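Bump. Still looking for Voltage-dependent calcium channel gamma-6 subunit structure tokens.
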Amino acid sequence: MMMWSNFLMQEEDRRRGASGQRARGQHKSGLSPEQEGKIKLALLLTAVGATLAVLSVGTEFWVELNTFKANDSAVCDAAHLGLWKMCTKRLWQADVPVGRETCGPAALPGEANCTYFKFFTTGENARIFQRTTKKEVNLAAAVVAVVGLVFMALGCLCVIMVLGKGAESLLRVGAVCFGLSGLLLLVSLEVFRHSVRALLQRVSPEPPPAPALTYEYSWSLACGVGAGLVLMLGGGCLLLLTLPPWPWGSLCPKQGHRAT
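Sorry for the wait, here they are.
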């Protein structure tokens, strides 16, 4: 009996110690289950934005350049480019949708030739359809996009530290990082738009003559716009979670107070 009672007392002490450690861990984190759930929802929203951002920056369908179809030829030329490389494509005119005056879309099957931009390595401008890129603008768009991805990674790290280690002070830092990331992605899109305009205007005087072109923005750029907006929205949600409750309590009094 004495051994059995000692065993029960030891088991009770062990349970109390475990519950005390859990209580200290919860006190250390300082996050209620409701707060933790809201932070996880905001993190899920920013994860969607991060996926769109990586998809946008890593693909080369930001803009499509299309030549006009010629009646005396069975093929036509199109191109699509992004931040890092460009692809020229020779398409069969029979595959082009009926009623379309220009070659494309670039997603049609055809003979493709893709090359990375050399202004990242040797500093040379690229030539597309007898037109020359303005490397300073293209470089600026790429650098701004990369900096945006860095801020996005820092924001993810901060929120993970908040959920895992209870570092609540990093929540506001993560919110600011996500907001800056979305803003920088939108700035990168605007800079890239200026680079496209500069490309169309920089026509080479050397023969053969430059063909007439039309351009249209493609799905990679649409992903970038969505990523920027979603990241800014996610950062705003995280920032709202860092605000104290009393300003909203004064604006929205409880039902009991109104009744009195």
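Residues 22-28, 256-260 have pLDDT under 50 and may be disordered.

Edit: fixed formatting.
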